Amino acid sequence: MEKQSRLLCSELCVQRRLYEVTLNCAILAWKDIQIAKKHTGRAIYGAVKAGSSCVPVCEIIAVQEKDDDTPCKNTGKWQKVPQSPADPCQHAFTVFYVERTRQHCWWCSNVTFHCSDHSLCLLWVQTIREQLALLNSERRVNYYHTFANRPKSLLVYINPYGGKQRGKQIYDHKVAPIFSRASISTDVIVTERANHARDHLKTEADLKKYDGVVCVGGDGMFSEIMHGLVSRTQQEAGVDENSMEETLMPCGLRIGIIPAGSTDCICYATVGSNDPVTSALHIIVGDSQAMDICSVHNEDRFLRYSVSLLGYGFYGDVLTDSERKRWMGPARYDISGVKTFLSHRYYEGTVSFLPAEGNLGSPRDKMQCRTGCSVCRQSSSDKLVSKNEDSVSDAECQDTWTVIRGKFLAINAASMSCACPRSPKGLSPSAHLADGTTDLILVRKCSRLDFLRHLLRHTNKDDQFDHSFVEVYRVKQFRFSPRYQECDSEVDLRESGVTGKRFLSQICREHRACGCMPSQSNWNCDGEILPHTAIQVRVHCQLIKLFARGIEEQQVFEDPYAHCAI
Ligand SMILES: Nc1ncnc2c1ncn2[C@@H]1O[C@H](COP(=O)(O)OP(=O)(O)OP(=O)(O)O)[C@@H](O)[C@H]1O
């Protein structure tokens, strides 16, 4: 690692012990002078070992000069302000910074440095602020990651009814105070109805005023925001969303997710936790994680975008059933899951897909998408090259489509691992967030016991694809058509939201041969039911960016002082 030249180095007090405090453009480090004399061992980042600690400048949230008459931050108690000019605690400044805790969670820690000289105190505050300001004017790389600009102004949408209906409380108590500490200005809109945020983003919002959009809610709320932003971007670029062939325009604004829903899968897959403070800190430090989006069409009609799961058969049926049990709360997913499993329905149809080529790995290569993922980085540079060279488009590769007909218990397309606390590995553990592909998983008709074995493997270490009745492909596009084509009356029923008994009885009337087994399932598109079963799906590489950095690997840090050129 390249050594950085020192900007400041002073002897300052922390809790009345003398520390050598050093700042360079990458790191702020402080070392207990007495302890350091005794120990020469290596220190672990973020932990106070052998009396030394450090924090990367890009993870400093703010620095504040401490008023003499405020309570001491470190003890929370009021302390007498020393009068003697020689008192080393007379002037102080506090640095707020990111500290990692358990399981990818972050929290806002702080340390207060004291000194006797006011001008020295001011110099430290000013120099740290200058370094933070530089983060906005240049892209910096820390140990693992390139940082984009920190946001200064955000548009925040809060769903007050998501999850346990605590969205507003979570934002007001946990997020707003740290945004304000980091001097981020916000315009907050508490939604009044479903699709309020989507419609506002699509038509009204003055997006030029903001550096990002924040969604406080669950996956459904995120989907609203993503649809609003993607559609607005296409409108402004004159791109027709109904045309499958059009290349969609990437969105300029990043999206932050403050988790306040029931499942918060997208947040979990992109940050590694569903903790609101962690997400707020990722927003403040200006993280940037690109993400693919699938467009879903029926013929020449755009239906929806998807970022996580498109599921037909099992997951479609679970969602359809659970929608009728909304009054049960989150328990409905378990009940509908068991019911759907016991009904053991299979569906006939044809799946065609365009396989991913090149260095995009395979769904079974056990390469997990993590911060700075090399597969996603490669896709990003491939995307740039193909844009510049106008290379072979997917449309010219028509002859490589693969066609599979059969009876399926489930057809799933996972554009990310879909890991969540219930299924820590997710539906496709090696799926990538931003490689321009989706993992198409076909579970063919099999016995109930075999299907149960497959489902259980989502929760243990065994390979869930290692069954004769499961196939998995990494694809760029796919199509599905059910064996029994849907008639207009079925689509009308779905679109008008009439589901349940009436819908099933309609199908059973039309396909008497199947007894009470419906001939078609529904597509579950990121938790929404699609009105059509015959769909065409195309993955758009890195169409949006989130204020996230993907899931960080277990950290092994080097000696912070190695970077300080001390
Ligand atoms: N003010 C509102 N009133 C009613 N519904 C709303 C409102 N604002 C947003 N919604 C809708 O509520 C739905 C569910 O919200 P959200 O995703 O935040 O929570 P959830 O469903 O509990 O969590 P998850 O999606 O993670 O399971 C979203 O689809 C969104 O469109």
UniProtKB/TrEMBL annotation:
It comes from the Eukaryota. PROSITE patterns: DAGK. Residues 149-300 form the DAGKc domain. GO terms for molecular function: ceramide kinase activity. One of its GO terms (biological process) is ceramide metabolic process. GO terms for cellular component: membrane. Pfam families: CERK_C, DAGK_cat, PH_CERK. InterPro entries: ATP-NAD_kinase_N, CERK_C, CERK_PH, Diacylglycerol_kinase_cat_dom, Lipid_Phosphate_FormReg, NAD/diacylglycerol_kinase_sf. This is Ceramide kinase. It comes from Cyprinus carpio carpio.
